Every structure is written in C-alpha cells, then in structure tokens.
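Hey L., structure's done. Input below.
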Amino acid sequence: MHFSNHQKFEECLQAFISRQRGYENGRIINLNKMPGGASKETWAFDLYADDKTHETLPMVLRIERRSPLPVSIDLKQEFSLMRIAYMEGVEVPKPYWYGDDSLGSPFYVIERIEGETIVKRLHRNGQYKKARSLIPTQLGKILAKIHRISVTKERFDFLPWRSQDGSPALGELLFYDEILHQYSPEPHPPLELALRWLEKNAPKSNYEVLVHGDYRLGNIIFTQEGVQSILDWELSHIGDPMEDVGYISVQAWRFGNDSKPIGGIGEREVFYKAYEKAGGFPINYDSIYFWEVFGNLKWGIITILQTVPFLDGSSKSIELASLGRKTAEVELQLLTLIEG
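Output:
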C-alpha cells in the first residue's frame, strides 16, 4: 500500500492502535518520520493513552522497506526476539505490537527511548565525556546478559542456526559466501581472499548462544550516563559468543579513532574484562581475531547488498548508494588484517 499523504498514513495507524486491547481510546499525536534508517523506515509518535490519567507514551513505529536485506531476519522474528530480550531484562525498548496489513508492509510498534544515536556526537561532544568512559564497560555487561539468555531449539526456533560440523563460524561463513556470490554485481578479489583465509582459520565452539549479530556503537541509544538501549536485532542468530565480542572492534565502527578499538572510545581489555566479570563466556583471543576479520567481511558484503536496490532501480536512496563506496575501505582493512 502506498500512502500519498501523511494524514492517510496516520489514519491507518490510528485504526490499528484502536484495535489493541487496553488502547481502544488511545490517540496518536506528534507523528513524524525520523531521519536515517538504511534498513527500515522509522516513525516517532506519542500515544495519548488514557483520558483519566492523561498518560502519554513515547512510541516508535518501524516499517520494513521494499527491499529488505537478504541477510536479515524478518520484522516478525525481530519483534519476537526483542520481546524475549525485554522479558530477560536486557536493555531494549518495550515491544508493544506486531502489525497487521494496515500499512501495506510489515511493521511493529515499540517504546521510544530518549537519547542520542549518532556516534560522531559521542566522539566529539564534551557533554559525553563521562559517557565515553562508561560505555565500553556497560556494553561488556549488557553483552554478557544477552549471551546468558537460555537458548533451546524450541524457544528460538524462529532464528537461524547455521553451525557446520560443530563450527558456528563455518556455518556463518558458508552463508555469507553464498550471499556474496548471489548478489554481488561484480567480482571482489579481496573478499574472496578473506573468505579463503577465514575458512582455513575457522574455530570450533563449545557454546551456542543468542548472538546479536550487529553489536556496535551505531546500534545503541546513549545519554550522558551511557548506554540506554540496544537496537537493531535484525542480524541475530544462534552462534558463537565470540562473534559479538570480535565484531565490536571492526574498524568501520571506530569512525576514524583507530587507536580506540571499541567503537573509537575504548580499549579491548576494558570491554573484555567487563564482559567476563558480568558472566560472559571465557575470552578466546584467537577466536576473537577470526571474528573481527569475519566482521569486516560481513560489513563489506552488507555494503554491497545495501547498494543493490539503488543499482536495480528499486530505490532512489542516496544513502544506500553511498554505502557501496565503503566496500573498498573494508577490502583494504581485510587485506591488512589477514596479512598480519
């Protein structure tokens, strides 16, 4: 369904919320489209929920874009996962409702957490000096909490389990190898070389845990007090806990502050110690190095995937087009890492 105007969109959303138990009289106010969102369209609004208490709930609506990433779980899976994480006490927005066909594309409604998401502001603004010192430790603690969520086939049957011959690493590698060769419009020799190096060095793992899959500073909400919420669970799966531990150090997430491997603000050891102390799994340094290399490969493939909708004409997004220019940066980093 294509909405020609803002008012029609709001009317359809209002009708959906009026069908939710306990919110029949809820009224949408301040509905606005939020900037960014390469993978999903995001809207913010307030829900005037109760005439008696005058309670107003801050909300976010996320809608699947026309060309979802082929490496992502779908919106319903992500919503189900966030609901489990929320119940387990992980710092995630409260999930309210998964949508119907009201808006023409899959969508869900979650709590809006106030704070900042732009990493460069965290790096540069003096008001976040305290946050910069707190966040690496906070992220280590939160990741331990995510990895300690009880995992069974029944509970997480909606998530990918890609382990191959006792190695989650090999399973992930085979998946991204297939994705690259299916979607890339041209050859990428550095990525091919990285695939061979990773296959040769793939570790086994004795653990199968909930992996966030995109655990980095760009997917958090922060304030002057540090991390408020973890966002964007669309790359989640069951796998090796060291995948998230290594991924956070990918060069692209440092935004130029290469001397601080944890998001351009922190040291590895601070993050690792906080993770282990909070109940995370034993740090395996060889495995972490593999997963950092893999994280760069994964990001390189995603930059290609993000560009495909622009190249095939299904999207006019300049943001998606520009992401394709980052592929060469990732390829250079991969060559540096595997030569070392």
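Residues 6-111 form a domain with the Phosphorylase Kinase; domain 1 fold (CATH 3.30.200.20). Strands lie at 27-33, 40-48, 56-64, 95-98, 107-111, 209-211, 220-223, 226-230, 237-239.

-- N.
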